[in-house]
Amino acid sequence: MVSLTEIYKIKESTLNELKGDSSRNPARGNKGKDRERDYYFVDEPADPETGGIKSRVVKKISLTNMYNDLEAEAMDMRKISEEYPEDIVLYNISEELQEVFNIFRSHLRKNYPEDYKKTKK
To answer: What does each C-alpha distance from 59 to 23, 43, 44, 54, 95 come to in angstroms?
Structure first.
């Protein structure tokens, strides 16, 4: 039996190779397990006929999660622009996104120091 790696002449990745990219931490942004709780439940009024109580899920807004998400997106965009060095539009978007992240980080650090400290964990 012939394997796909032999057919396409590619090397099979090992877990250590996948973990080796230190410039992009896959546990950042919305991919992390250590995020603050993203939602909470709000109970609706009880149903008069059945007495059942329904809950509504409400997304929680967090400066810490926004920081992590924006940082991860800026990293991803930089990598994409490096993959396509001839595309000036991708490069410009990457630079603008990095500038937005820097502005947000400075604002967070100056005005919300407690939330900024949470990003350094």
So the answer is: 30, 14, 16, 16, 30
Instruction: State which amino acid sits at residue 100.
Output: V
Q: Over its length of 121 residues, how does the chain's per-residue pLDDT go in tens digits?
A: 666 666 666 665 554 454 444 445 544 544 544 555 667 778 888 888 888 888 888 877 888 888 988 999 999 999 999 999 999 999 999 999 999 999 999 999 999 999 899 887 6
User: 68: closest CA among 24, 99, 111?
Assistant: 24
Phi, psi of 55 (to 5 degrees): -115, 150
Taking only Cα atoms into account, the Rg of the chain, rounded to an integer number of angstroms, comes to: 22
Tell me if residue 109 falls in helix, strand or coil.
Answer: helix
Q: How many residues does the chain have?
A: 121
Contact call for residues 80 and 90 (beta carbons, < 8 A) = yes
64 in Cβ contact with 74 (< 8 Å): no
How far apart CA 15 and CA 117 sit, in angstroms, is: 31
User: How is residue 59 written in tokens?
Assistant: 């997304």
